Amino acid sequence: MNFTINATSGSARRGTLTLPHGIVQTPAFMNVATQAAIKGGLSAPDLETVGCQIALANTYHLHLRPGENIVRNAGGLHTFMNWQRPILTDSGGFQIFSLARLRKISESGVEFSSHIDGRRVFMSPEDSVRIQHALGSDIAMAFDECVGLPATRDYVEDSCARTFRWLERCKMELTRLDEHSEHTALFGINQGATFPDLRLRHMEQIASLDLPGYAIGGLAVGESHAEMYATLDALLPAMPTDKPRYLMGVGTPSNILEAVSRGVDLFDCVLPARNGRHGKLYTSQGTLNIKNERYSNDFTPIDPECKCPVCRSHSRAYLRHLFKSGEVLALRLSVMHNLWYFNHLMEEIRAAIESDTLHKLTQRLYYTT
Amino acid sequence: MNFTINATSGSARRGTLTLPHGIVQTPAFMNVATQAAIKGGLSAPDLETVGCQIALANTYHLHLRPGENIVRNAGGLHTFMNWQRPILTDSGGFQIFSLARLRKISESGVEFSSHIDGRRVFMSPEDSVRIQHALGSDIAMAFDECVGLPATRDYVEDSCARTFRWLERCKMELTRLDEHSEHTALFGINQGATFPDLRLRHMEQIASLDLPGYAIGGLAVGESHAEMYATLDALLPAMPTDKPRYLMGVGTPSNILEAVSRGVDLFDCVLPARNGRHGKLYTSQGTLNIKNERYSNDFTPIDPECKCPVCRSHSRAYLRHLFKSGEVLALRLSVMHNLWYFNHLMEEIRAAIESDTLHKLTQRLYYTT
Asked: What is residue B179's DSSP assignment?
């Protein structure tokens, strides 16, 4: 893995991230393929069409179904889902703490009940890394505890210390697995809930391991935007400047712009796909709900300024008709448009950093988000 | 509209049907886009990819939702759904007699309750033709009564007589609408339930109107295959040889082969799409249920002999995973494969007629259906 910063605009960085399966121009938005597929019926060629540079898949989901052995036997996740560009896998930590039930956390790992069939599953940091390695990810995320809020300072302090010990174990396990082939890059994840000093101390700790990249976890979990930005303001100066920085689970276009302007390079969020499936579509003039009666006779595209394949071939009236008729195509076209919007937004952000005009983009886009 | 027969093999015909939106090589299978979309999330480009020559849309559904005025305002069905190849619309008759409730049939037309919201709707033969003309179909079907079985001879005789009077009204209305532009071809529909003499008498009547094409309706509604083939044996010699012959709602690959060998040119059926959505996939070795546990570790394509885009890029294991995970992409890939299978079967049938080897194809394919 190689990461080069080509230009800056204030604290914002325009970078190039080279991974085994290709190059990612940053800042970049990762498109979420939780179960080795983009929700809404998008295929891998559709993903390329909407300008996706890197897909994110979920270790928790793929471990439970179909299981990493099937994916490895298929030749890895890239072959399994027919996606030849880079893939990042999360560690399963976040899903264990948000989806699974009856968690029992210990130093060795976490035991939990599968949200699918209730069966008891144990996952250690080493398990998580082994699964991600079997999936063949370009980037593996460290196994962490994502602390639910509110949490006491004592609990968060203990949890951060354990997450750091887990990180050391993740690094050791990946080193062992990658001994003969260095294909998977491990990113550490910063935690610390809403305690700035714990966040900073944890960041210093994980930075000391000299990992290929660093992520900020435990944000976008219900705190206010102001709290999120304050945490970023405190954290980003403490993050290694020569490594990619990934803000997990974020976010809206304005969240992304705010974070980019503070120096974040990578993002992921289910928002554009989820909103798309509910008919909420992003446009240069703000969002619209395509199911609204007012669009029944509107033969203009979703966004007249948009050059995505959906806007080039379909009208608002057709899309509304598909939603009202319960046609699956409604989901696919809406998700395609929204993902294109987010990927295109990142293109605009990259160009704005190169021309040092990020503030203008911020002004223009703010009211649409 | 122009129809030319280029070759024959026994009673089977290899034809070319020229329509305002393009040429259809016959025998052809029409892909069903009931509500101006193929179920399972296929887009118009997907339809081209699977080799669809002509799509079928439903007048009943589109009249109720979104309404033909919206489609006309969009520039017609071709523009509305972004499909530039030919479209046939059925008349609404079959759906009124299978989907709608509280039907009241009279000489002037049928009053019924919408299956969507229960509202009372009246449709006359003239209404049906006006709707199909507004949709901009290449081929409009005559408005007919599809008699439910079992039915008394007296009822069927009266019904056939009325359906013939309705056909005359359809023809008159389309002539009026097409006065300045002859774009839509009207096909008459033969009825007569399971009474061979009524079928024949009705066929002679409708043939006397010298319409551009003729369809056989009221089959594939629950009768045995032997009964269907016996009806075809009796009817086909009485159908005009220089007009396309369309067997409505049929069917399985073996049904299609049997009908082609008796001289049928056009088919439509929801079977490949519906089966695909349930994971039943067609292969050169018969059908398979992709949800079966045995495919969880099977990294071969659905059909190793198939050259469709799904078989070229995806394994049975991936498809099974998508079904088990509830991913919409499962539906789309399965429907794409099945439609490709049917469209490709028609290609093989056309080639076999040209080389006068239809009997060999019948032998090879019979056990797969």
From this structure: S
Q: Is B19 helix (H, G, I), strand (E, B) or coil?
A: strand
Q: What is the DSSP letter of B65?
A: T
Rounded CA separation B61/B34 (Å): 7
Architecture of domain A2-269: Alpha-Beta Barrel (3.20)
Does B93 have pLDDT greater than 90? no
SS3 content of chain A, % helix, strand, coil (to 5): 45, 20, 35
> B257 is written with which tokens?
């082969």
Please tell me the distance from the alpha carbon of residue B368 to that of residue A112, in angstroms, as a whole number. Answer: 46
Query: pLDDT tens across B152-194, in order?
Result: 999 999 999 999 999 999 999 999 998 866 689 999 999 999 8
Q: How far apart are CA A345 and CA A365, in angstroms?
A: 9
**Cα distances (Å, whole numbers) of residue A268 to A16, A26, A273, A284:** 17, 13, 11, 21
Q: Which residues of A are less than 8 Å from B36 in CB distance?
A: 318, 321
**How far A54 CA sits from the closest chain B CA (Å)?**
19
Residue to mutate among A65, A311, A328, with most B CBs inside 10 A, is A328
* Residue B5 in contact with partner chain A when CB distance is under 8 A: no
Residue A182 has pLDDT above 70, yes or no: no
Ranges of CATH 3.20.20.105 domains, chain A: 2-269
Question: How is residue B216 written in tokens?
Answer: 């056989």
Which residues on A lie below 8 Å from B324 (Cβ)? 65-66
- Residue A7, strand partner residues: A14
Q: Tell me whether residue A226 is exposed, middle or buried, using C-beta atoms within 10 angstroms of its C-beta: 0 to 12, 13 to 18, 19 or more.
A: exposed
Taking the alpha carbons at both ends of chain A, their separation in whole angstroms is 33
Q: Does domain B2-262 have CATH number 3.20.20.105?
A: yes
> What DSSP element (H or E) covers A242?
none
Q: What single DSSP character describes residue B80?
A: H
Query: With contacts defined as CB-CB under 8 Å, which chain A residues touch B81?
Result: 318
Reduce the DSSP state of residue A93 to 3 states and report it. helix
Which pLDDT tens digit goes with each residue over A77-110? Answer: 999 999 999 999 999 988 888 887 888 999 999 9
Q: What is the CA radius of gyration of chain B?
A: 20
Distance CA A363, CA A254 (A): 10
Report the complex ipTM. 0.96
CB contact under 8 A, B43 and A324: no
Q: Are A102 and A52 in contact (CB under 8 A)?
A: no
Considering chain B, tell me which residue range(s) the CATH 3.20.20.105 domain(s) occupy: 2-262
Which helix (H) or strand (E) covers residue B125, if one does? Answer: helix B125-135
Overall pTM surpassing 0.90 (yes/no): yes
- Angle of helix A196-207 relative to helix A153-177, nearest 10 degrees, comes to 20
Instruction: Please state whether the peptide bond connecting residue B304 to the residue before it is cis, i.e. omega within 30 degrees of 0.
Output: no
